[in-house]
Amino acid sequence: MFTGIVEELGEVTAVDDLGDSCRFRLRGPVVTEGARHGDSIAVNGVCLTVVDTADGEFTADVMAETLKRSSLGALGVGSRVNLERPMVADGRFGGHIVQGHVDGTGTIVERTPSENWEIVKVSLPAELSRYVVEKGSITIDGVSLTVVDAGRDHFTVSLIPTTLGLTTLGTKQAGDPVNLEVDIIAKYVERMLGDRSEGAEGTAE
């Protein structure tokens, strides 16, 4: 489990095409410290498994399904990425519950700069709109953020200087794809209410 608090701005140093998958090599001295084969690291919000590490870099295999459902397929050598290690049991819970399972992708629609922050508008896939609410949590490229405004096909977030300076969201431009993970609690609530409704219908006379 992750919390959406990016630890490091990493970089893709190699991409090997393996046919039905690819292998990324990424530089991230902070997240690779103590990392071993089989450990997890979130890359732009996608939970990947470490294959090996060396000299502050790690490799991870990405299957075709992940490439199709996330924006990782658009990465190339030199691309900057948000990196986060899983939360440890006694760690500080700074963001919200993030699984590293991308629900879909959105696109940066527009950026509105202000003196001390920036409002970013992101397109929202129709199947995810019911999970996004004003003042609720959402993960964009692995960054835990609070929704400012939620529309039927878009939402906005406010980015503070720290987020702008220490994550890829500071340089994303209109038209760039981003990974989205909605709040898992919303999906659990929906499922439980649906099961309760189906159970009530089944017992009605």
SSE order in H/E notation?
EEHEEEHEEEEEEHEH
Largest sheet: 6 strands, antiparallel, barrel
End-to-end gap: 44 Å
Give the number of helices. 4
Major sheet: arrangement of strands: 1-2-5-4-3-6
Got a strand count? Answer: 12
Radius of gyration: 18 Å
Which strand-content bin applies to the residues?
Answer: 35-45%
Q: Give the low-pLDDT segments.
A: none
Q: Fraction of residues in helices?
A: 10-25%
Structural class: alpha+beta
> Judging from the principal axes of the Cα atoms, what is the shape?
globular
User: Mean pLDDT, rounded to whole units?
Assistant: 91
Q: What's this, in brief?
A:
The protein has 205 residues and is an alpha+beta fold. Helices cover 18% and strands 40% of the residues.
What does this structure look like?
With 205 residues, this protein is α+β, with helices and mostly antiparallel strands. 18% of the residues lie in helices and 40% in strands. It has four helices and twelve strands; from the N terminus they run ββαβββαββββββαβα. It has helices at 29-32, 64-69, 161-166, 184-203; strands at 8-17, 21-27, 40-43, 46-54, 57-63, 80-84, 104-113, 118-123, 137-140, 143-150, 154-159, 177-182. The protein has a six-stranded antiparallel β-barrel with strand order 1-2-5-4-3-6. A hairpin with a 2-residue loop joins strand 9 (137-140) and strand 10 (143-150). The longest helix has 20 residues, at 184-203. It is globular and about 45 Å long. The termini are far apart. The mean pLDDT is 91.
